[in-house]
Every structure is written in C-alpha cells, then in structure tokens.
C-alpha cells in the first residue's frame, strides 16, 4: 500500500457515504474515519499502522518500512489533490428548500463551484424564508438534505471541497 | 398562441403609462412584433383582470378606480414606491431591490402578479384590481436576533388594520395567515436577505379585497374570502395600503429597538387562535394538539393529547374547531 492508495481511500471515504474504512495489507493497517461534523477527512493512526501524521495535508510524512520510493511515482501524473471538505451546517431549525420557489432551478447543484457569500439554500422557520449563504468557496461535493425536509440546528446541509479550483 | 410573459409585462407598462388613453398599435410595437403576438399578450392582460379595450385604432387600458399606484398615497415614513401594473411577484422584485441596497420603507406594489407567491409551493391568486399585493422592505439598524418574530409582527399589523376596518373577528393562524373563520383573507410571505453587511426583510402582503366568491378559482373557493364580502362594503385599496404601510413602519420602529420583545405577548393576546385545536404536519409527522401560544422565538407551542408540550418552528397547521370563548 502506498501513498496513492491511501489518498485514493481517503477520497472514497470523502466522496461516498462511508463513515470509516479499514484496510489490512502486508501486516500494515490503515483506518480512515470521517467525522460527521468534522470539516476534514482525517486519518487515525493505529497501533500497528504506519506512522501517518496527517497524510492528507503532508503526503511526505509517511514513514516506516512501507514508505514508497519517490521514483515509483509517475512524473507525468501529479499526486491526487487532497480534499479539504467543509460542511455547511443549518444555523437554525426549520425546513430546507433548495430553490426560492418550486418552479425555479435550485440555488446550487452538486459539482458546482461555490463562491463565498453565495446563497446555497433557504431554511424556512416561523414562515420566514432565510437565505443561507456559504462562507467558503469551493466545489459542492454533496447535498445532504432532500428538498422540503425538516432540518435541526447544526445539521450538515452541504459539503464543500475548499481545495477545488475552477 | 401562447403569450410571452416578458411581453405581457412590457405592454402592461406601456399601456399603464398612458392609462385611460388610446395607444395606437404601432406605439405598442405590433407592426414590428406581429399583431398575433401582441393580441395574445393583450388577451393575457384581460385574463389577469385588466380592463383592456381593443379597437382598430388602438388599445385603451382603463385603470381600476382605487388603484394604489400613486406614491403620494403612501405615508410620510415610507420610502420610495415602486409601482408596476404587472410583475412576477412583488416579493421577488423586493428581494432583488433589497439585494442592491434599496432603502428601508421601499414599497413594491403591483396591480396584478403573474406568479404571486405564498409559502413554498403555493401560488397566490392575485388578479388586477381585486386586491392589494405589495412588499415592504424593512431594514434593521442591527442584526435581528430572533428573525422568526418578524413574520408574526407583520401578521399582527395586518390583522389589526383589518379589525379597525370592522373585520373584528379576523384571526391569525400561525405563523401569519389572516383568516375569517377558516377562510383566508390575507397571506404574508417574509423573506430575509443579506445585502452586504446589512440584512433586510422583505414583507410581502396579499389581501383579497374585491373578489366575489365566483372570482376565486374553483379549487380554492371554499378556503378564501374577500374583505368586501366580510364587510358588505367596497373597501378602497389605496386607503388600505396607506393604513397598512403606516402601521407596519410604525410598529417596526417600536419593536426593532426592543428586539421584537412585544411581539410574542401581542401574538398570544391578539391572534384569536390560542386555545384552538389544530392538526399539524411537521415533515412527515402529523400531530394534533391545542395551541398554547408562541414561544419567545415565534415557535408554535402545542399541547398534545398526552399532555406533552411540542414546539414547532416549521410546518403547517390546520384549524380543527373553534372553542366557545373565541367567538366569531
């Protein structure tokens, strides 16, 4: 297992609806855990895991016997870009709406680039339509709530990869 | 032929600018655009309730007698008045204006709305000359800590003005539907927008005024009622607009400094629905209970049959029965 594999796994955990993944291979173990409300995908070092601290931010920190040879990495393909996932959370209890009205397109879609201050949805509470704005920029990787569903305070509405560039 | 809504709006504005006068077809651009297209758009104006008279010489739009289109009808405290004979929705226009920095008190008025909006998914039937459809931009000096109280305040203002006119038994169904019995007289939609460092509330109000029962679409006929029908008289829309804007702006100033602290007490005393049994839908859940009032953020408090107290920040309620002490 090399750094690329770890990055690939981290990406899987981040993009798919996986909370945790653990891989055992050649006597080494890697566990990647996504915290529900944590803004980032983190790796939790295990007792018998290769010392990783924290590989997403500093890929070169991998040490130990399995450290991949630098030369083994293709020069043509740069290392996979690490994701920096930020959750946009509900600032209030209410009903989540993706569009200002039922017959108009949603404010945002998955895959779209988001700029800071952009309206991402509406939360209705006490029949007040509150525009919810993003305070980060990046690419929307998931929308966690269905239109017209109730949301609780602090519930994750969207996840944004702030490392993405257009 | 399907008419295009942009053209409907443009023709309405042009005819309105010369209301009462004959506007020739060329001035309406019919020779360039095509007569068929122009007539289709004019037909839609007729459907919207405008008195549009077509002749070979041209077109005449006769404005409703009590049109609320003059800015000087508004009280002194009001801001600029933006009037259009036809808009998609006054609230949509109000939100756009608020985003670009429109002043506190700016009032957006339309004779008819193409897509009058109620709460999500509900269209508000708003034909020309029949009611009052307007949106008022309200800007607090500092961020409002309990913004959920703003829609309740707007509802209180509307119900107060209607009661003063003689509709004494008008009531407020949470959060801010104005009812007569179980029928809706007025609807309110408040949207909160952030424009730069300041927030703005766009308070949209729609009041049924001159409709007869047969004027309402059949599918909502048994759920709506107009003010004229309640009072047995013809209410002047301009006068009513003046009173409402005055009430809204003055009550806003009274409440904004105290963080809307008086709204909860007023709502519980004046809504006319405390103590009523309701059925409520919160997401997929349906529950029943008796209204105890609203909490300090404007949430509805329901006493459920098992004795527990439920609070609702969102969802819909339906009135079940009227207890004796709230007489119609």
What are its keywords?
heterodimer, A: 166 residues, mainly beta, four-stranded antiparallel beta sheet, 1 helix, 11 strands, B: 328 residues, alpha+beta, Arc Repressor Mutant, subunit A, BirA Bifunctional Protein, domain 2, SH3 type barrels, 3 domains, five-stranded antiparallel beta sheet, 15 strands, 28% helix
Q: What does this protein structure show overall?
A:
The complex is a heterodimer of chains A (166) and B (328). Chain A has 166 residues and is mainly beta. Chain A has a four-stranded antiparallel sheet with strand order 4-11-9-6, with no helix packed on it. Chain A has a four-stranded antiparallel sheet with strand order 8-7-5-10, with no helix packed on it. Chain B is built from eight helices and 15 strands. In chain B, the strands form three sheets. Chain B has a seven-stranded mixed sheet with strand order 4-5-6-10-9-8-7, with helices on both faces. In chain B, a hairpin with a 3-residue loop joins β7 and β8. The interface between A and B is medium-sized, with 21 and 31 residues.
Biggest sheet record of chain B: 7 strands, mixed
Q: Which class do the helix and strand fractions of chain A yield?
A: mainly beta
Number of domains of chain B: 3
**Outline of chain A, from the CA principal axes?**
elongated
Helicity level of chain B: 25-40%
Short description:
With 166 residues, chain A is mainly beta.
């Amino acid at each position: 297992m090399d750094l690329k594999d770890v990055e690939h796994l981290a990406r899987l955990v981040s993009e798919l609806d996986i909370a945790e993944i653990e891989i055992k291979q050649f006597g080494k173990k890697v566990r990647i855990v996504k915290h529900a409300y944590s803004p980032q995908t983190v790796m939790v070092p295990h007792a018998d895991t290769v010392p990783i601290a924290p590989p997403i931010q500093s890929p070169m920190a991998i040490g130990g016997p399995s450290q991949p040879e630098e030369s083994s990495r293709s020069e043509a393909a740069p290392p996979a870009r690490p994701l920096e996932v930020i959750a946009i959370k509900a600032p209030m209890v209410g009903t989540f709406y993706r569009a200002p009205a039922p017959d108009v397109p949603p404010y945002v879609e998955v895959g779209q680039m988001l700029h800071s201050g952009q309206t991402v949805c509406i939360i209705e509470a006490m029949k007040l339509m509150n525009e919810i704005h993003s305070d980060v920029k990046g690419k929307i990787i998931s929308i966690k709530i269905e239109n017209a569903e109730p949301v609780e305070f602090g519930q994750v509405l969207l996840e944004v990869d702030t490392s993405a560039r257009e | 032929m399907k008419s295009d809504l942009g053209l409907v709006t443009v023709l309405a504005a042009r005819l309105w600018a010369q209301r009462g006068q004959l506007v020739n077809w060329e001035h309406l651009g019919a020779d360039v655009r095509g007569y068929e297209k122009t007539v289709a758009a004019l037909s839609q104006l007729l459907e919207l309730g405008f008195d549009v008279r077509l002749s070979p010489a041209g077109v005449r739009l006769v404005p409703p007698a009590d049109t609320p289109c003059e800015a000087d009808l508004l009280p002194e405290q009001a801001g600029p008045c933006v009037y259009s004979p036809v808009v998609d929705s006054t609230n949509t226009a109000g939100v756009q204006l608020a985003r670009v920095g429109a002043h506190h008190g700016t009032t957006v008025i339309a004779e008819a709305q193409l897509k009058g909006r109620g709460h999500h998914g509900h269209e508000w039937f708003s034909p020309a000359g029949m009611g009052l459809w307007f949106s008022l931009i309200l800007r607090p000096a500092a961020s409002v800590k309990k913004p959920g109280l703003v829609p309740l305040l707007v509802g209180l203002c509307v119900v107060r003005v209607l009661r003063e006119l003689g509709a004494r038994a008008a009531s407020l169904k949470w959060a801010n539907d104005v009812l007569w019995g179980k029928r809706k007289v007025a609807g309110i939609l408040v949207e909160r927008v952030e424009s730069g460092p300041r927030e703005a509330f766009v308070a949209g109000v729609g009041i049924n005024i001159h409709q007869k029962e047969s004027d309402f679409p059949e599918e909502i006929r048994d759920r709506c009622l107009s003010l004229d029908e309640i009072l047995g008289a013809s209410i002047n829309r301009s006068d009513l607009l003046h009173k409402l804007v005055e009430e809204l702006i003055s009550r806003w100033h009274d409440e904004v400094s105290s963080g809307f602290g008086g709204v909860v007490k007023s709502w519980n005393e004046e809504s006319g629905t405390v103590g009523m049994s309701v059925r409520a839908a919160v997401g997929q859940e349906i529950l029943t209970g008796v209204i105890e009032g609203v909490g300090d953020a404007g949430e509805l408090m329901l006493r459920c049959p098992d004795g527990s107290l439920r609070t609702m920040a969102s969802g819909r309620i339906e009135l079940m029965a009227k207890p004796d002490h709230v007489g119609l």
